């Protein structure tokens, strides 16, 4: 299996491909990464070990993991001139717009001496992206706050370092709460990969032209931004805040059922899962743990979320349409409780999904592949002549 794009007339609207990275059974609610169930990885693994698994296909032994973590730490800084590029944005630019720009700009630093057909070059590109995404994500946040960028600290774990870069300032080091770091690491694992979703398919399609991986990942980030995809986690919090109180839930449920109303319950439904999204179960448990740690188990947002979930599991409209909470439904409540603003939620999703994108890109480029070329069903005019004047 080498991620070859193949076309079957039955798949006219999308290209199909082979992959050995992730398996989903939407009807059974099964998600496996290289054969390992997501719930077991979330419970026993950590994000960098899951990155190793997705990229190389096997879990690392102790020595392999130590070497992988050490190499990731060697690339956490970005070129200083990225700071100038960052300062070209308005302070109120959406962090996703900044992230698309900064990641695309990485091409300018590494593209010239990169041969995508060299496995070593592909591996270094993967390390650079895994390592630099938290640094770039935190840069987006700091700039939006008008605060100086915080440099990475290589003595911290991946999740601790991210929270440090987000919340430390030159005046005060942020004291990382281990429960928050564990929750962030679990959020990273749960978002790491998800087979041929819209953004991963974009990365594959862009990569199939031979474009450099940094540009391909920037295309994936742009695709993830939409509220129907990765932007849903930000939209869930906006929806919960708009509902505001349990007494207004029925009003929004009616809107979600009204065919004349474009409103949809954010964080519900899925293109593939017609059963519970296995990631949502782990996310809900993590949400309960973090809010309990903060003494906020009666958080109004959580109460509204749980009531919506209960309705979705009981109301015939949602049951008939198999609309269950998806990965985005609880993640935002956790991140808000940690102090992360809603505008950063999809940035964090993109950061975590980078390993999935680059693993799919690497899988495709490492074998024979052809440029992707989705087909269409032409429904326009038949041939006609230009009118004579
Ligand atoms: C992600 O692909 C991936 O793997 C994505 C992802 C990943 O990890 O990469 O899992 C991440 O993107 C998760 C999805 C996040 N998006 C949202 O939570 C946004 C809200 N959800 C919807 O917009 C919607 O459910 C989609 C886009 C996710 C799926 O849309 P579909 O494919 O159109 O849903 P469907 O065809 O199964 O809909 C069936 C019916 C329709 O009603 P009828 O025409 O049959 O009467 O269900 C309705 C839809 O209108 N419906 C909803 C609904 N989702 C579908 N009604 C109310 N609220 C919703 N959320």
Automatic annotation (TrEMBL):
<keyword id="KW-0816">Tricarboxylic acid cycle</keyword>
<feature type="active site">
    <location>
        <position position="270"/>
    </location>
</feature>
<keyword id="KW-0012">Acyltransferase</keyword>
<dbReference type="InterPro" id="IPR024176">
    <property type="entry name" value="Citrate_synthase_bac-typ"/>
</dbReference>
<feature type="active site">
    <location>
        <position position="328"/>
    </location>
</feature>
<dbReference type="GO" id="GO:0036440">
    <property type="term" value="F:citrate synthase activity"/>
</dbReference>
<dbReference type="Pfam" id="PF00285">
    <property type="entry name" value="Citrate_synt"/>
</dbReference>
<dbReference type="InterPro" id="IPR002020">
    <property type="entry name" value="Citrate_synthase"/>
</dbReference>
<dbReference type="InterPro" id="IPR016143">
    <property type="entry name" value="Citrate_synth-like_sm_a-sub"/>
</dbReference>
<comment type="similarity">
    <text>Belongs to the citrate synthase family.</text>
</comment>
<dbReference type="GO" id="GO:0006099">
    <property type="term" value="P:tricarboxylic acid cycle"/>
</dbReference>
<comment type="pathway">
    <text>Carbohydrate metabolism; tricarboxylic acid cycle; isocitrate from oxaloacetate: step 1/2.</text>
</comment>
<dbReference type="InterPro" id="IPR036969">
    <property type="entry name" value="Citrate_synthase_sf"/>
</dbReference>
<keyword id="KW-0808">Transferase</keyword>
<protein>
    <recommendedName>
        <fullName>Citrate synthase</fullName>
    </recommendedName>
</protein>
<dbReference type="GO" id="GO:0005737">
    <property type="term" value="C:cytoplasm"/>
</dbReference>
<dbReference type="InterPro" id="IPR010953">
    <property type="entry name" value="Citrate_synthase_typ-I"/>
</dbReference>
<dbReference type="InterPro" id="IPR019810">
    <property type="entry name" value="Citrate_synthase_AS"/>
</dbReference>
<dbReference type="InterPro" id="IPR016142">
    <property type="entry name" value="Citrate_synth-like_lrg_a-sub"/>
</dbReference>
């Amino acid at each position: 299996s080498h991620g070859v794009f193949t076309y079957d007339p039955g798949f006219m609207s999308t290209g199909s491909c082979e992959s050995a990275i992730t398996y989903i059974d939407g009807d059974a609610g099964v998600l496996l990464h290289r054969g390992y169930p997501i719930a077991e990885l979330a419970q026993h693994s950590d994000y960098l070990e899951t990155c190793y698994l997705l990229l190389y296909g096997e879990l690392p032994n102790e020595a392999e993991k130590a070497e992988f973590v050490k190499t990731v730490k060697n690339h956490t800084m970005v070129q200083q001139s990225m700071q100038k590029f960052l300062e070209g944005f308005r302070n109120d630019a959406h962090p996703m717009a900044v992230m698309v720009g900064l990641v695309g700009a990485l091409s300018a630093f590494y593209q010239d001496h990169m041969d995508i057909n060299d496995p070593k070059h592909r591996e270094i590109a993967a390390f650079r992206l895994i390592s630099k995404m938290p640094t770039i994500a935190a840069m987006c946040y700091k700039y939006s706050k008008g605060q100086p960028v915080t440099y990475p600290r290589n003595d911290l774990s991946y999740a601790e370092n991210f929270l440090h870069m987000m919340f430390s300032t030159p005046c005060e080091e942020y004291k990382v709460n281990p429960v928050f770091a564990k929750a962030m690491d679990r959020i990273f694992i749960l978002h790491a990969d998800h087979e041929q979703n819209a953004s991963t398919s974009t990365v594959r399609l862009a990569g199939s032209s031979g474009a450099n991986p940094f540009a391909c990942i920037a295309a994936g980030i742009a695709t993830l931004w939409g509220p129907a995809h990765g932007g849903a986690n930000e939209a869930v919090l906006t929806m919960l805040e708009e509902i505001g109180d349990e007494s207004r839930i029925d009003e929004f449920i009616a809107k979600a059922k009204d065919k004349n109303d474009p409103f949809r319950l954010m964080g519900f439904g899925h293109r593939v899962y017609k059963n519970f999204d296995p990631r949502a179960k782990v996310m809900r448990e993590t949400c309960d743990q973090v809010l309990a740690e903060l003494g906020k188990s009666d958080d109004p947002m959580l109460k509204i979320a749980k009531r919506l979930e209960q309705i979705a599991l009981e109301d015939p409209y949602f049951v008939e349409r198999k609309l269950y909470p998806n990965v985005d439904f609880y993640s935002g409540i956790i991140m808000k409780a940690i102090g992360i603003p809603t505008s950063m939620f999809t940035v964090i999703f993109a950061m975590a999904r980078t390993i999935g994108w680059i693993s799919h890109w690497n899988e495709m480029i490492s074998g024979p592949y052809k440029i992707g070329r989705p087909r269409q069903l032409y429904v326009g005019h038949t041939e006609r002549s230009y009118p004579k004047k």
